[in-house]
Amino acid sequence: MDAVDRQIIAALRENGRATYADLGRKVGLSASAVHERVGKLEATGVIVGYHAVVDPSSVGLGVTALISIHPTDTADDNEVALALAELTEVESCYRVAGDESFIVKVRVPTVDELERSLGALRKIPGVARTRTTVVLSTRFEGRPNTTTVGLDA
Amino acid sequence: MDAVDRQIIAALRENGRATYADLGRKVGLSASAVHERVGKLEATGVIVGYHAVVDPSSVGLGVTALISIHPTDTADDNEVALALAELTEVESCYRVAGDESFIVKVRVPTVDELERSLGALRKIPGVARTRTTVVLSTRFEGRPNTTTVGLDA
DNA sequence: TGTGAAAATCAACTACA
DNA sequence: TGTAGTTGATTTTCACA
Q1: Which residue range or ranges hold the HTH asnC-type domain (chains A, B) (predicted)?
Q2: What would the pLDDT profile of A74-97 be if each residue is shown by its tens digit?
Q3: How far is it, in rounded angstroms, from Cα B147 to Cα B47?
């Protein structure tokens, strides 16, 4: 991992469909050298994948909520996590320190669906209580942080 | 937006570097037809962009925290949001309903940096109080929700 | 909207410094 | 690791159904 790798990573975070030739021009290497580097970054798990980002409301998912999940005394975190993964509306799932055990982000078409979804969450064994915060607007999301990407670490 | 568009979207969310030829084979269209459709989905803002997803700790961002931001009585939400956008460590920013005005996700290299980052947050005019929840592990994140993508809506 | 064909570009592999 | 060259696939555009 050197400065060139970090440049490539930054470029691919910006545009995941950039061609190797594009990347090569940007970092001053040939396309095949970039190809080689990207392959290694993928193989070593630095680059996890490439995804199209879609406007949620365009695909009928206009309601976003952040939900804190408080565990019961006997809750098994792994089982709760597996049950959360079963719910397709749960887009992200974080195991956290503090009173709650998990914080999840949920996307659903309507508030009716949110209500139904909360019902499903509360039925999960190990879930004692939930606290729901409805997102009014997403100012930005998943923005690339290139703070350390430009440094040698 | 028909069922074929939704299939294409689902495929591109899964693999943002899929070729038009691949997508065509998957949905039963020619590459040029897919090219045409994807161009329209991009132009109409359904597909917002394509991004490589990077393992945060591989780029020196091993600490993730979710921070609730409580506003002062006189806070201007837009100004707060703009100030939050200036902080590169703030990866996502949600305006929410409830006591807090914003919930942000922050990624930093170390807990020391988290402390420094919290100091920066609290200096923002309009920010009265923050509540920080440290992420212990990310079970999954930004997972594609294809619930409605397969339907006609 | 779609197909099919053509030219330019690119991916992926191979030698070789 | 890198460049350069090669081959087959892909992108992109265009005429046309």
Answers
A1: 1-62
A2: 999 999 999 999 999 999 999 999
A3: 17
